[in-house]
């Protein structure tokens, strides 16, 4: 969820599609990435109302989120992510994938896939899906790790494909510089 520049509040709708009432307690967290891992800490910097609701079957309830601290505040001039990809050794039979964002905007990562290098190259070789839909976000100045099945040598030289904020991006995987 993002909050456009100049906006001070947004709404989130919760719908009960079940046949019993729901008792919902909501809380706002500050989201950071530390050492490639997700870190959530409770925060009072975003207002949430109401924090506790009961939703009857077939009904919906609006939760209101408001500043002073937004979820993702978009600046007047858009900031873009700059994402680099590399792989690192992990205990067999796994390899670590690192996406690092050195840009100023967050990177929404969707549909990670790879293609192995081929000699000679074969036309129209399909990419192999690593993770479909939303594997995650990489916040500005942070990195995120994913575990891949296969050895480091299996992935070095492969092409990694992903959608970053809706735009296709491709990298040739190399070992991470700090490995």
Number of helical elements: 1
> Helix share of residues?
under 10%
Number of β-strand runs: 15
Main sheet: strands, sense, barrel: 5 strands, antiparallel
Describe what this molecule looks like in 3D.
A hairpin with a 2-residue loop joins strand 14 and strand 15. The chain starts with 8 loop residues before the first strand and ends in a 7-residue tail after the last strand. Helix content is 2%, strand content 49%. With 179 residues, the chain is an all-beta fold.
Which short descriptors sum up this protein?
5-stranded antiparallel β-sheet, mainly beta, 179 residues
Summarize the SSE layout with pairings.
Elements: E1 9-15, E2 22-25, E3 29-34, E4 37-42, E5 47-49, E6 52-55, E7 60-66, E8 83-89, E9 94-101, E10 107-115, E11 128-131, E12 136-138, E13 142-149, H1 152-155, E14 159-164, E15 167-172
Antiparallel strand pairs: 1-7, 2-6, 3-4, 5-7, 8-9, 9-13, 10-11, 10-12, 10-14, 14-15
Describe, in short, the structure shown:
With 179 residues, the chain is mainly beta. The protein has one helix at 152-155; strands spanning 9-15, 22-25, 29-34, 37-42, 47-49, 52-55, 60-66, 83-89, 94-101, 107-115, 128-131, 136-138, 142-149, 159-164, 167-172.
